[in-house]
## 1
Amino acid sequence: MIQNNKYNGIIMLLGGLIMVVCTGLLIASMLMSNCNWASVVVKIVPWAYIIGATAYVIAQRMDVKAGGTLTLRRLYSIQLISGICFILAGLLMVEHVYHFIQPLVVSNIDSYFTYIQVVHNNWVVLLLVGAILQMYTTHRISYETRK
């Protein structure tokens, strides 16, 4: 059981590190789009982010203690919502780079503007919401388990 928590911690750490590095690389490649490396990096980074986010969320869910107080169960549910935000942010990153859904949804100029409002760089909002929820639940869970 202790080794399982150790491996979960390592997987969460690696997944979080992959998420942070990929987010930074995606932003850097968007800012420096005229560089040769940016066109290659922007194609790989969203997929790596999704892998890191999925590993992070799965390891975090495996670390959830069974039972516990009502407050802990609520906080673990909020952590799950945070994880869903991280994964959805990764999917929006992929859509932002590859435009898989755009040909299916856009038929005229109005639908194009709606598509831009929904997809274009809104992965940042989901990432921010997930990070804020993650910070809140992490501190509250550690406080509740010490009580």
## 2
Amino acid sequence: MISLITNPIVVSVVVLCILCLCRVNVLLALIVSSVIGGLFGHMNVSETMDVFIHGMGGNSETALSYILLGAFAASMTHTGLAPVLAKKIASTIKSNKYLLIFILTGIAILSQNLIPVHIAFIPILIPPLLGVMNKLKIDRRAIACGLAFGLKAPYIVIPAGFGLIFQGLIADNLMQNGVEVVKSDIWKYNWLLGLGMLIGFLLAIFVAYRKPREYQDLELQENIENEEIKLTKNHYITLLAAVLTLVVQLWTNSLPLGALVGLAVIFGLKAIDHDKMDKLINEGVGLMGYVAFVMLVAAGYASVMKATGGVDSLISSITPYMMSSKLLATALMLFVGLFITMGIGTSFGTIPILAVLYIPICVKLGFSIPSMIVVLSAAAALGDAGSPASDTTLGPTAGLNADGQHNHIWDTCVPTFLFYNISLIIMALLAVVIFK
């Protein structure tokens, strides 16, 4: 038990959560937690920081993508296309706040599977709609839960876009550890996890955050409801740029290159004057730069956690308790997955770490293949919603906090943690009972 309490990952994640709940900036909390984790992993401060800094490169492509997509989002605002899109949505919903939540959730789902732009749409679409949300007195925590559901549940259940990547990783890692499985079978069992998240989503918007909540109307929130919808040449150029961004991304599998092509079209066809280029890049950094830096720091944090050997020792310390029952083993594996992903902030990067350790245990205890699929998927996905360093939480906050009235930890991380992680745990345990 002492080894579990003093495990560098456990200590580090606990410190990270406490600091974040005390409203310490996420960047600083990640750095401090990394140092503490390194010290508990018998690394000195200098060695810890060296591993941390070298590890930051692990998310460099993601960070560059967010900066360029932030600039692209700023360009859509400058050409007036973002307010037009927001006006279209506002005119559709009338005064139905739930319709707005469902539309934004639907767009988030499409961003994962049909048009895989991930969180890039949020800083484009959400800020112009804040005034409408204020008028309808929508609790932004409900919007955060809707966006998080759309960003997370689809890749667990739907075998397309990011879902195909996630489910492919699950299948590949199972096969690498001696379990024969077909990639197309993953979704057939993971639907149970998706159902749990859907129940959590509905509870969040219809029960927990259904009451009206007042926000101040600030100057940056444009009154889009009274604007006339009229598409201009610059709007069409921007739409063309958005389409080319998607095509290049899918063709080259490079989001930064896609965003770069989109910006080149906007400036090349003079939808925005060249002399505004510096301003747009600066605005892009302002929109998504913080998210990009958090992702870089999260990669450094992950490198430190791996260097401490805390994952292996954590599994070793709880393995003796697993042998008494499948349910207890599942609960302990989910617990470890939650801690690892809460710190690292990515379910995709957690899969290879957990598979090597979990699959032999599952085989020894006689888990069925469907049970292994669900448990590994849930253990990897746990913590992605709710982690201060996850793009599943950073993305919604980037849009909802455009006017400074939405707290990242208390208004995004805590709600998504409660409604999605608890539902994933319950459904994973249920899967072990169902898929014997």
